[in-house]
Amino acid sequence: MANIMFGVAVAAASGSVGGTTFSRGAGGAIMRNRSRPINPRSSLQNTRRANMAYLTKYWSGTLTEQQRSDWRAYAAGTSWTNKLGQSISNSGISAFLRLNALRAIMGLAPNAAGPLAMGHAGGITQGFLAENDTSKLQMDEPGGAFDKDLDADYVLWFAGLPVEAGRVTGFKGMRFVGFVEGDSVAAPSFPDEQTAPYTMAAGQNVTVKAIHIDPESRVSSPVYSTVTAAPSI
Fold first, then answer.
1. Which site from 87, 131, 137, 221 is most exposed, i.e. has the minimal number of CB atoms within 10 Å?
2. Domains (ranges, CATH) in the chain?
3. What is the tens place of the pLDDT at every residue in 85-125?
């Protein structure tokens, strides 16, 4: 689905309409033919589709009407930003899916209860490394709103396709890398080292995304970083 901002004429667009994809580059707006993946039904995509189908059914068949009402109230009381930076309203089921799709990635059961506090999870700051090993990524201890000593406080991270040095890093092919969870008894240790989802060559750049889920089950906006793969020693 494309996001389009209308002025006297179209002022901005993001996404795809028919066979055309709208995006922005360093020189401004770009309109190109829409490309389709060679394998649109990979095992990863099939898993994600199955998760969304399960969660949609869970919303309609497992949640009580009061729980659905709580999610709608949360969505109505929380501002959302689309790809064009516009503030928009959202639905209760969208808010429910946003949280629980991430919980499914972590292997956690759905959370039926909507957040009691409005708004999103607090932002975080973090640093990523691909140091001395082109198959590993490291996450330093996140700063900001994440508290490693707080139960059910999560940071998930993802990595995109490596690109050659000098090229603009993109968000294509984002895959789950891992997550850390706060614990009041045994706090996680850092740096958190994980195997990269793609093979990297020395000097390549990788875009990394981190998302914070707080104990209120609120989800933050993503934070992006760029790391450069160093040669193995």
1. 87
2. 3-33 (no CATH), 43-105 (no CATH), 124-228 (2.60.40)
3. 777 778 999 999 999 999 999 999 999 999 999 999 999 98
The model's pLDDT over 161-176, given as tens digits with 9 standing for 90+, comes to: 999 887 766 678 899 9
- 142 near 149, Cβ under 8 Å? no
Is the Cβ–Cβ distance between 108 and 101 less than 8 Å?
no
Residue 156's H or E segment, with its range, is strand 154-159
Q: What is the 3-state secondary structure (H, E, C) of 98-154?
A: HHHHHHHHCCCCCCCCCCCCCCCCCCEECCEECCCCCCEEEECCCEECCCCCCCCCE
Residue 163: other Cβ atoms inside 10 A:
16
Contact 210, 126 (CB under 8 A): yes
Sign of CA dihedral 116, 123, 146, 106: positive
Higher pLDDT: 131 or 226? It is 226
| Spatial distance between the Cα atoms of 171 and 36, rounded to a whole number of angstroms | 16
Percentage of the residues of the chain whose pLDDT score is greater than 90: 56
- Cα–Cα dist 6/125, whole Å: 34
How distant, in Å, are the alpha carbons of 31, 113, 188, 226 from that of 193?
Answer: 39, 32, 12, 16
Q: How many whole angstroms separate alpha carbon 99 and alpha carbon 45?
A: 18
3-class DSSP state of 94: helix
Give 232's contacts (C-beta < 8 A, 6+ positions apart).
132, 133, 134, 135, 202
